Amino acid sequence: MATEKEPEGRSTDEELAHLRHVRFGRLPARVRPEDHVQLVETGQRPDRAAPAGGEDDWMLRTAAG
Is this structure's pTM higher than 0.70? Predict the structure, then answer.
């Protein structure tokens, strides 16, 4: 049982556009330049909070054991 996905011969631009629309649907709305967001670089976030009471106290409180 042989089924053909495309008709024989050349398709017109309108036929190809219709096939694309059937397969993929509509494109999303275009994003306007005024809807873009400007990114602002910030300082690097610290990995952990500053130790309360000193580095030795922080190590004792967070040590496994």
Answer: no
